[in-house]
Specification:
By secondary structure, this protein is mostly helical. It contains two helices and no strands.
Length: about 70
Amino acid sequence: MNKKMIAPIVIGVIVSGYFLMWIAMVFCIEVNLFVASIIGLPLIALLFLWVYIVRERIDEIRCGEEDDLSKY
């Protein structure tokens, strides 16, 4: 593993844990399942989006594109 991959992985794990905490709280509180789904499903979508973004960043680092801002 490259040293430049450590930061995206650590931040990815921290933010994913944060999303999982909110998802667990939404589905553990005593509300209607419909209301919990309306709040929880976007959080689940954000979690999957975050995992996708971290994977894309790791692939960019593996391809040799360490500096994301060099494209602009």
